[in-house]
Amino acid sequence: MTDHEWLAERFEERRPQLRAVAYRILGTLGEADDAVQEAWLRLSRSDAAAIENLAGWLTTVVARVCLNMLRSRQSRPEEPFGLRMPDPIVSRADGVDPEQATLLADSVGLALLVILQTLEPDERLAFVLHDMFAVPFDEIAPIVGRTPAAARQLASRARRRVQGAAPVPDRDLVRQRQVVDAFVAAARGGDLQALLAVLDPDVVLHAEGGAAAAGEAAAGGGAREVRGARAVAEGALRFTRVAGFARPALVNGAAGVVAIGPTGQLISVAGITVVAGKIVQIDILSDPARLRRLDVSLLED
Fold it and tell me: Does 143 lie in the same domain as 57?
């Protein structure tokens, strides 16, 4: 085995973990893969023998690349203003594929990723590295160009935002599925009262995809955010046509719904957060361009 082959083998062992780091920071799978690939290119051009802690070195490189990507987003005038929907990870309703397990470790639900997208780049990176991957602040500090104490403050601010806004879903997946199935059945039947019965009074719906498919039907004309049970329920009554194509799935490890059209095209993916038996958040992606980039091969019969 050559030195290059040995190094490539060590890198591949760490790829799933590096991809998980990048996905949490960036929220998009394609960009996460790009960041990991960039880390490999930098490793292959480095003196690997001089690297004492390969895992830590690679995590640092991936984090730096991700931070540059986040900052670049902010500088692009064409970047849409407002909430950026993360890429959902879609699995069969009967379980998560082993290859997806690392990406979804530590209950990285879609609702949490939505909140992470609202943080400043430095805050997001500090929170993800420290709170999710136990990276010490003295290692985070040089990545963000601050002191360890300042890096700690970044993570603390992010933590307060997350704890105050990201709902923690029920752990019982069977109960989640019962609530989600009741929501879909009520939408199909046009039953407003049944919809209200499963929605938390303060439910919030995020939708990305314009005025098509589930974005229009559930959000009422492509709105990015809808709040309140009645507003969400009334919007869901326009979801009836798409609800006919709905099928159960796991979305980021929680009970969710995908809508697949008669010709097999993916119409929408909905992550649904259930707390205490009520739906508190719905995150819908129906942007055709983004849906085409999702890997939904596991849903095929």
Answer: yes
